[in-house]
Specification:
264 residues, Probable branched-chain-amino-acid aminotransferase
């Protein structure tokens, strides 16, 4: 039986209820974070909480204390006896009257769910989506609840018999996949799209840049076709890319090991 945290209490998932007037449910008015758990440790928790705070500041949501969130996350881990897996935290503005304008005073809804570890993803076949990412929008910097462009892109991938799709900026530069940042190896250098091209400031992406192993660069689909290797990376996994729009890639074991060593 899965146990979740909802608004200050642990309870069985099947008993959890979201108010029908919750703005996260009605309008996508909220944010989320997905965190990896390894040997009972929530990896890079402080970074996730910092990005969560950036999101609440942008959306003008009340921000629960980091200590309270940390306690709730660990309570879910303990209740579900999760040693390795993931946690999903969802924070909405809470309930409000009908209409777009939020109430002046709101009580956020906080939901945390835990999941056991899943099998490592197989190498990904990618296609190019017709959906775009506007790197000039501040919403590209946070994990908000409106994922419709990503959903449409993933549907396009399914239609193309691919595993995932890459979204581009309006100028044609590559931005990211539907749920992961893009890495490519070109001329021996590891590159990833910059934020201004629509990339989300992913936690794993940030770690690789800070390590000095990865560098930001505007990339086109042509650059990916010419790459020596490619990966999709997010907080939960590092996934090699094996194909993109007719181009096949070998799995670069040495570089994969380097990346995993930093992200572990």
């Amino acid at each position: 039986m899965s146990i979740v945290w909802l608004n200050g209490a642990l309870l069985p998932a099947q008993e959890a209820r979201i108010d029908p007037a919750d703005r996260g449910f009605l309008l996508g008015d909220g944010i989320f974070e997905t965190m990896r758990v390894r040997n009972g440790d929530i990896r890079f928790l402080s970074r996730h909480l910092e990005r969560l705070s950036q999101g609440t500041t942008l959306l003008r949501l009340p921000t629960p204390a980091h200590s309270a969130i940390s306690d709730a996350l660990h309570a879910v881990l303990q209740a579900n006896r999760i040693e390795s897996g993931s946690l999903r935290l969802t924070l909405t503005r809470g309930t409000g009257p009908r209409g777009v304008l939020p109430p002046e005073n709101s009580t956020p809804t906080l939901l945390i769910a835990g999941f056991p570890a899943s099998a490592p993803p197989t190498p990904a076949r990618l296609c190019l989506s017709t959906q775009t990412r506007d790197g000039h929008s501040p919403l590209c910097r946070i994990k908000h609840l409106n994922y419709l462009p990503n959903i449409l892109a993933r549907l396009e991938a399914r239609d193309a018999n691919a595993d995932d799709a890459l979204l581009c900026a309006p100028n044609g530069h590559l931005a990211e996949a539907t749920g992961a940042n893009l890495l490519i190896l070109r001329n021996g250098r590891l590159l990833t799209p910059p934020l201004q091209d629509g990339a989300l400031p992913g936690i794993a992406r940030g770690l690789l840049i800070e390590s000095g192993l990865c560098h930001e660069a505007s990339l086109t689909p042509h650059d990916l076709h010419r790459a020596e290797a490619s990966w999709l990376v997010n907080s939960l996994s590092l996934r090699p890319v094996c194909a993109f729009e007719g181009t096949s890639f070998a799995i670069h074991e040495e570089w994969t090991a380097k990346l995993q060593n930093i992200l572990s």
